[in-house]
Amino acid sequence: MSTACCLLTEDQFLCSICLDVFTDPVSTPCGHNFCKTCITQHWNINFPFQCPNCNKVFNTRPEMQVNTFISEMAVQFRQSAEQKASSSSSEQHVSKPGEIPCDICTGTKLMALKSCLACLVSYCKTHLEPHLTMSGLKRHQLIDPVENLEGRMCTKHDKLLELFCKTDQMCVCVLCTVLDHKTHDVVPLTEEYEVKKAELGKTEAEIQQMIQKRQLKIQEIKHSVELSDEDADREIAGGVQVFTALKESVERSQAELIDTIKEKQRKMEKQAEGFIKELEQEISELKKRSTEVEQLSQSEDHLHVLQSFTSLNAAPPTKDWTQVSVRPPSYEGTVVRAVNPLEKTLSKQMKKLFDVELKRVQQSAVDVTLNPDTAHPKLILSDDGKQVKHGDVKKNLPNNQERFDTCPCVIAKQSFCTGRFYYEVQVKGKTKWDLGVARESISRKGKVTLTPQNGYWTICLMNENEYEVCADTLIDLSLKSRPEKVGVFVDYEEGLVSFYDVDTAALIYSFTGCSFTEKLYPYFSPCTNNGGKNSVPLIISPINHTK
Prior knowledge:
By secondary structure, the protein is an alpha+beta fold. Helix content is 37%, strand content 17%.
């Protein structure tokens, strides 16, 4: 029997209705074989009675008898297939969580190798073999194993979703194209698959680029943190060094002050002790003489009294203490003299700190040029945009929205809305000027009031040596020297605007805690020339890094 089985092809043992090995095979009058259950169910729902293979019609429902020969052959084939499956199962691994199991395997489920879109079944290597060898099954479309094969069928027409409607952007079956999507742009799934695959490739590339940018941003942020850590450690070390030096200087001056005061006190005490000792000696001599005088006055010996009177009547030699006094030492100015070296030390340390700070802010130097479209008509700008002064003649210029029409000022072409920037302006020889930064939305028409509330962060020279901070209320500045070059530094995120005397590396003033939400522009005003007394220009200077 097994030899006969091997002589028959595998598709002779499969029911054409269920596409599986015969179970209780029966033969129709036309000679075709089916599973008894399959042909019975087929004729229960289909009329007239017709052979599913050759379409021969029977007037009456045929009486079906089990084909014992085919039945025995099918049993032999099934046993052979199960033995083959059992022997090959050692070459295949059992389906694990996340893998697609074979739908045919009973008991232990092996991993599926392919899914059939016609059968809507997933097969392991063994159960897939009929689809690879049988002519009737070779036409079925096989894909890599997937879950939910039923989802690949049109729920409305129970047909395979093998087309794509580009109009509605959805998968459809053949019947959908002649009914609901008749006039739509419909293409095969494979064609749209290539389009979408190309789009996915592009999307993947964009996502990878976004990932790369964010990874770079992470590296940038980490690098910023590292730099911040280094800056913080350097600042702490520098601060500790400065305060240690100041502390040592204070302690040294304090010790010297105490020694000076105590030395004065010791001298005064020594002098007082000498006077007291001398006075005590005189008192002792006087007490001795007093005793002798008292004894002589009580004597009844006339001769002895008269003979001793001359020597005892006169007081013993003593010092005139009328003008002698011991006064406490004067400590006036002692503390002040002790503090003076501290002031010099502190000034020296402050000078070092400002030198370091100025070097640091100069690293944020930017190239700044004046914007002629914003300049007041009486201002004269140099061709390179680096100098501005006030002229007496008002030029005939377009009164565009950006131009200041009343106050003699101008802003730079460059604007800044992040990070730090620094520039220097020579003010030597001028008797009046305004410098700083201004936000983009400042009013440029009519009178300009320089306050942070109005969008200006500036300082100014009012008259000769009168320097002011243009805050909500003017703040007088007391400067040790007259600046000839002013540095302007802005830290946008920190909300900081600082002004420096470049030549002395001294901090003039800082606006702190500012809230910037717009672009900031460097701002300049040479003020009026005051009959030629203030005709020197403001000059944007190249940065000469301090040594």
